[in-house]
Amino acid sequence: MKKTSFNKNIFLIIILAISIIFLAVSLDFSIASASDTLPSGSSQANQSFTQEAEEESNIILIIEIVIGLLLISSLVGIITERLRVPYTAGLVVIGLILALIGRTDITVSPELFLGLLVPPLIFEAAFQVKAQDLLKDMAPILSLAIPGVLLTTFLVGGVLYWGTDFSLTTALLFGSLIAATDPVAVVSLFRSLGVPHRLQLLLEGESLFNDGTAIVLFNMMLTIAITGYFNLGESILNFIVVSGGGLLIGLLLGLVISLAISIIDNSLIETTLTTVLAFGSYILAEQFHVSGVLAVVAAGIVSGNLGPQRMTPTTRILVYNFWEYAAFLANSFVFLLIGLQIDLNILITDWKAVLWAILAVLVARAASIYGLSWIGPGIPRRYKHVLYWGGLRGAISLALALSLPVSLGEQGTIIKSMAFGVVLFTLLVQGLTMKPFITRMGLIEKSPAQEEYESLNARSVMARSAHKQLESMYKDGMLSSHVWNVLSKPITTHANSLSDTAAKTMRAHPDVETKELESAIKAVLTSERATLRTLLRDGRISEETFTSLVHEVDSALTEQQSDLVRLLMTRTTKNIEILMTIVIQDKDLQKISNLLEPYGFPMTHIASTGGFLGRKNATVLIGLPKGKRLVIKKLLESANLANLKAGAEDTKISPELSHDGATIFSLPIERYEEL
Predict the structure, then answer these.
(1) pLDDT by residue (tens digit) across 576-596?
(2) Residue 557 near residue 607, CB atoms below 8 Å
């Protein structure tokens, strides 16, 4: 098995190498052949023909570049997944290799980065953010996105002014250029490893807002560096107008598109409207000379929280899948182009300035994280360490560096070198070491019981697979009866023993059972959807029947509720170890009762009053087996109750969950009886 896997990796690497060489050679050939076919002469007809030929050649060249980069990014994705290294880091390395072996320079304008590639990245991330989670941690996020950007700008500028020959304004210009974080590689790693959701939100939320503030600050610093004019009052007012204007445009467009989606019942049109929103908000904001990036952030958050509520389950799945793919494409191009844009010769020439820049960025990141993260809800120390090391730089910094005017002269060239060096360092050094760093911090949310069960179950599957292979060899006459009798029974006994131990582990830890049950149900529902698609393709069901049935499956996939779930969930009243009390408004009692009844948990309620106006409440008492609190939480989240907030897991008296309509407590009990 190991040999087969090794051979596959070697094969993929060879295919990738051939693709890179082919792309480099084909680009050189295209340009050379295009230049050879252009006619000479100065007549108007020849000039017109030359212009048309050049335009046609450029279009063909662009198509070749896009297809080649897509092929390479696909192969890089397969290889990095097998090697378990960040996809984005692999793209940068391949981009560097492609730049070294190719004689063709693929130049990318900052407008392409900011106007075409950045909006889908930002919109997809903002679309996934839940407003209630964002509001809960808005204080620390904004403290890192606004004061943090300012602090980074001045600290980086100060270090460079002290350690290099830069003027103060030029040093501050670089500080603003490099202040925006781009944790794409880290966030994707977080999701795959199961890092706590709050840590993901803090890192991604900071990046969403500091991208916009960094661009606004960069434009201000660039104006000061070129003109030498600075007025504090005007600068503050301009910052507020540009930032606030971008947020306002994004908010209004997000509301308008969400309203349009609510009255449309066509999944393709609704998905198209989200695309219009992502790019349209950026373009419109830039037309009004306000922040296009912040407009996309606001539009994404608004539409991501309002739009899906009014979409059918099928449309929600389509929209999420579409933006996941769009972000993948944008990421692929961005990080490949980052590698293509970095000139290693320039980095070597300006190595002292690059080292100073890396040092300044690390110092400033430490000051902003450890100095400002006390604002708002407390951030655990381990989270701070990960936020510090996860402050990667990427597309925004590169685009701003490429947009520097020629009038800055030699210092502008050095700034580009430092920006490329910092981006390369953060992606390859910090990005590649993030997984072991997270593991060392103990932030991977996988309990020892879960790891034990996975190990036992995997070993059991391995043993049964070995027995199946042995049996196949015996039936084909490739194995003697003696060897079959010697090996068959011990392997079967070992497999059964492992399976029994795994089952005991699962029964002892209901949370393990819940996770596997959810995974199995999702697999079943996905299989049902694929079967419906096959039946439709073969003409065995009509389009109307398909639409009706796939709607049911998609509802179960998105809402985590189906008849299958209810049948498989435990309906026993034995082993009750937790008393959960839910204080709700009286008007919500029937909704909660209907929601919980199919799961068979013992339940009763008591009338009560509370609140400033003494409104009518109901206290619902639920008996739960150990490990079933997660089930209740997910049910409440699916009930569309506003402002649901998660509290501490180990609380004994404080609310475990709270929202506008309910407060929930969990208390351990020693004995349970039904009267």
Answers:
(1) 777 777 777 777 777 777 666
(2) no
